[in-house]
Specification:
Blueprint (H helix, E strand, L loop, with lengths): L5 E2 L3 E3 L5 E3 L7 E2 L10 E4 L2 E4 L4 E2 L2 E5 L13 E5 L14 H4 L9 E2 L2 H10 L4 E4 L8 H13 L3 E6 L5 H9 L3 E5 L5 H8 L3 H14 L3 E8 L7 H14 L6 E5 L14 H13 L5 E4 L4 H4 L1 E2 L6 E6 L2 E5 L30 E3 L6
Parallel strand pairs: 9-11, 11-12, 12-13, 13-14, 14-15, 15-16
Antiparallel strand pairs: 1-6, 2-3, 3-4, 5-6, 7-10, 8-9, 8-20, 17-18, 18-19
Helix pairs in contact: 2-3, 7-8
């Protein structure tokens, strides 16, 4: 074991001598020296370890809108990082260099929780995002960072597929302030064949976060031509969101580009995104956005009271702002759902790489 391996939680010893990981519904059963499917949770002797604690492929300051989060401190910078590995096997993964990595030594950036939070403070970041690969697989690291961040009024943002068991789900989201959860499709067939996971578990996570926590939640669906972009599937997804978690939860439809194991499909046409947006709006959802394309109308926010454009956006860049300091429309006073504090940030579209100095 090296300095960036820590004891992992959520496992049990089985009668046959194996250790069963109980972090996610894969329940990987491990003999000595074996790794779970996520690759970062490993058994040594009679203990399970997380061997990416404090290790990252790099740190970057992003606009919060890139997560994407449109109703959570708009315009502010977020310090983003991930580790390696993933507990899903998405054939269309657009971060596969990180999430599908089986070479832990690629993780050349080291930052213990205190160092990472101090970097967020030094760069005036409003929040820290656990992203690039799914943070549920490095729960111990993410939670330790999040606890210290809260002590310094730094917010915590999870970008996740939500494939996690009930007990760790409660712990993980206890320390998050906002989450963007990928709702990758709305059929069991899609989840089984393209991610080797389960739709039901994802829906349980979404319902839990939206209805049983104080976490601000937004949802993202990457529309893949011919796979999850039919009118029927989009309609069913939109109706489920409306019925189960309400009309105020923002939904982002984003454009697929050929990547990883799905190089033979075309990019998602903008018209497909706009069609999905109209279906979702007609289903009663109030805030539906398109992403990975330039489209100001589809990325801006409109007041539900007077229909005025109250936040103008185009590809993470804010252009208009017609809200008071508490997020109410300046035209009619209707409160916008979300988390707001004063005027918007001015970070814009830029990304900034960050090196985190080690402390003794």
């Amino acid at each position: 074991m090296n300095q960036t391996e820590v004891s992992a939680r959520y496992w049990s010893k089985q009668k046959d001598g194996r250790i069963k990981c109980e972090l996610c519904p894969r329940y990987c059963s491990l003999a000595d020296g074996q790794r779970g499917l996520c690759y970062v949770r490993v058994r040594y002797n009679d203990q399970m370890y997380l061997d990416t604690y404090g290790r990252s492929s790099g740190f970057c300051i992003d606009p919060i809108e890139k997560k994407p989060l449109n109703h959570f401190y708009p315009g502010t910078p977020v310090l983003s990082f991930g580790t390696a590995g993933c507990n899903l096997t998405c054939k269309f993964c657009q971060n596969h260099e990180i999430s599908k990595s089986r070479k832990i030594d690629k993780l050349t950036s080291i930052a213990m929780p205190k160092e990472l939070v101090q970097a967020a403070i030094d760069h005036n970041c409003k929040s820290i995002a656990y992203t690039y690969n799914d943070p549920v697989i490095f729960l111990e690291y993410a939670v330790d960072v999040a606890k210290i961040a809260r002590e310094h009024q730094i917010k915590n943002v999870a970008v996740t597929a939500g494939y996690i068991c009930e007990e760790p789900r409660v712990e993980f989201f206890k320390y998050m302030d906002s989450a963007n959860i990928d709702l990758k499709g709305f059929t069991d067939k899609f989840y089984k064949e393209l991610t080797t996971s389960s739709l039901d578990n994802i829906l349980e996570t979404i319902e839990y976060v939206a209805n049983e926590t104080n976490v601000w939640i937004e949802l993202t669906c990457l529309l893949i031509p011919g796979e999850n972009d039919s009118n029927k599937e989009i309609q069913r997804m939109s109706e489920w969101i409306f019925d189960k978690i309400g009309s105020d939860i923002p939904l982002h439809f984003t454009a697929f580009h050929p990547d990883y194991k799905m190089l033979d499909l075309p990019r998602t046409p903008t018209q497909t995104l706009l069609r999905a947006r109209q279906i979702a709006l007609a289903s009663g959802l109030k805030f539906v956005y398109v992403g990975n394309v330039h489209h100001e109308v589809g990325q801006s926010t409109y007041c539900t009271g007077c229909n005025a454009q109250i936040i103008g956006r185009d590809w993470h860049q804010l252009s208009q702002w017609h809200l008071d300091d508490h997020g109410a429309c300046l035209n009619c006073g209707t409160q916008l759902s979300g988390v707001f504090d004063g005027q918007p940030g001015i970070w814009g579209r830029k990304r900034q790489q960050v090196k985190i100095p080690k402390t003794n």
